[in-house]
Amino acid sequence: MTSLRNQIKERVLWWAISLVCVAAVVTARPAHAAGGALDLLYERTVMTAADSRCQLFSPPIGAALNAARLQARGAALRAGAEAETLSRTEQRARAAAAAADCRSHDMKVAASRVRTGFDGYSKLARMNYPGEVADWKADRGVSREGARWKLSQSGPFGWDHLQFGLAGQYGPPSLTAVAVFADGASPYAARLIMRDVKRTSGPYLDTRSRGKGGKLSLAARMPPRAASRIFQAEWRGAAPALLLPANASGGWSFRFPDAAIAAMADLDPREAMIVEFVFSGRKGDVVRQAHVEIGDFAAGRAFLAASWR
Known about the structure:
11 strands, four-stranded antiparallel β-sheet
């Protein structure tokens, strides 16, 4: 127990100083980046697990801590850490938390440092989660005018434009796709295509298809269709004004089942998924595809969590 207390003291002291250093870790050299991100993942997993068992933090602090943990996990994967290494790191962290005394002085000191470090972070209304190709923008604010984007990624696909993510007004948001089609076309259906984690052992990353700056294109981050899972939109309608891209006068909105949110959160941040819009054509269906980078979707979702509890 003494060695465990010393371990927690040493790690938490360092950890409290580096609470929000994931961005710096990602820009470091790969070997250093993976090690630094794994250290952050260990520290944040220890305290997240301890919070779950000992009820250490308020919901906003707990949500901020969990979001930071997921950010560190994503940073470690992008820096080249193997999934097995992450799993062992998380197991060690949970074991350390399980062995600690919830009422001990050391745990109280560690929890106090977390509260101090995350107090300001937990009160932030907006966060930006940079990706390799696209960013997720999180917003915990509430609008009286109607549903708006809580966590979103946007960008062009061909001549068209996609806004995708979590949208809502009060309570848990819904997974939504809003598309503006340059030719005014009207899709009759939409679907999400992503890797099926139960049928695969990891992400498909075609390293032969590197684009500008040596980055993989989003298309090169997709699994074969046979290894994919498909979610059909459960609602279709005209897009509300607050969900449209800037300067757009109209578009189509599709809402997807909540199961798709959990499925996205389970994916590797290096992966991509596809939003397919289906149109009626003279010779059958016509499909237009938009790619979405998974990135730190799970971290952004955790960041939002405290706002609807």
